[in-house]
Amino acid sequence: MDRRRFLATAVAGIAGPFAGVACAGRQGGAKPVSGYGPLRATRDLRDGKVRLHLPDGFSYRSFNAVGDTFSDGSPVPGRHDGMAAFPGPRDTVFLVRNHEVNGPVGAFGDKDRAYDPMAGGGTATLQVTRHGEVLSSRPSLTGTMLNCSGGPMPWNAWVSCEETVNGPDVGDDSTGGDNSKLTRRHGYIFEVPVSGTATARPIRSAGRFAHESAAFDPASGALYLTEDCYHFPSGFYRYLPPRHPLKAGRLLDGGRLQMLAVEGMPRADLSAGRRPGTTYATTWVDIDDPDPRFTGRPPNGEAVQAVGRQGRAAGAAIFARLEGAVHHQGTVYFVSTQGGATAPGDTPPGGFGDGRGQVWAYETWSGRLRLVYESPRSAALDLPDNVTVSPRGTLVLCEDGDGANHLRGLTRRGEIFDFCRLAAVQGDPGAEFAGTTFGPGGHTLYVNVQSTRGASFAIWGPWQRGAF
């Protein structure tokens, strides 16, 4: 999206596309709608295998899977995650995609350009057609770790987020291996230009914590950030750079990090169940030490809370696992993966938070926080993760649940529907959707599947027939 369109979108319709949900206020939103119709096993145009279940009329092609090669011949790493689409020449699309690789497994791509040559995460940049045919592909940020999600920036860049605080100064996490082998501290955000290769310089003032997503507000220049702590409370942050990024042409370090709080309710616990449409007035508290340095290698569980505890000590609100975030028409929509009440018959998912998911809306122009949707049961919505917005203003939610994972739509009226179901991945029951993003013009929905044979997917069809 170019700068002029991005700014116009930011000020259009100050009520926001989900304002009607506040009036409806019904538990779990409205009755589910049919969306695009029943889901049927659909063959992948790449090789004829069934990987997705889609409504009639929709097609897809998978591409750039784990173990494939980039254009330079180097292998494609695993753990495909957050992603954004940018316009390319002659009706093509540039995709910038995260790889959520943990541990001191060595950098992919050119190790001389890696932030930490021992870390295996980062980003890849691909040029593809609207039907998922790969024209070129390359590593674009390497040597980072657990790059989970992030967000697109209107100056033709992607911000990639590390969901960890691993480093040689921190004790090992439960899945990452020996942190003493790492050469750099992790837990930062990095800017990745669509053209060229990232500088691999972290924006340290934006915090060292378990970053998940980033959503940019062009009106104020603030970058809104989510935090995903599995076992501990999470927070909603904003980073105020020293100069407006649309004037600087990039995201500058040296700004101020803040954490959201509810007015009159210090340390408000918003992770529990509540009625959709519930609205709060908010304020922001400063984080005095956004980039903590540790001595004595404290336990990983202590280090990952160092920034959030500062905010909560000043009254910041508590959420359960904040993951995907997207900016649309002056509002940041963000997902609390395990927020909400536990429905009868559902089992708490483990970790912090007992619900099956919430969707929140923060109005950047008014400071109001509103609960848009809370899952009434896992069959309606099961642990939402990444989120994007369709050309019509419908949210597209990626599930990371315990059963068959879906792409689900959440309409402006609070109605939720199934659009796509992931076929069972043999030997990988934990396979999930991630990185959903519409290409320019809305012709194609690109999405990743994170699994042992994860890949990217291009989906297209009769969008005009339903809410997307």
From TrEMBL:
Organism per entry: Nonomuraea muscovyensis
InterPro entries: PhoX (IPR008557)
Tree of life domain: Bacteria
Official protein name in the record: DUF839 domain-containing protein
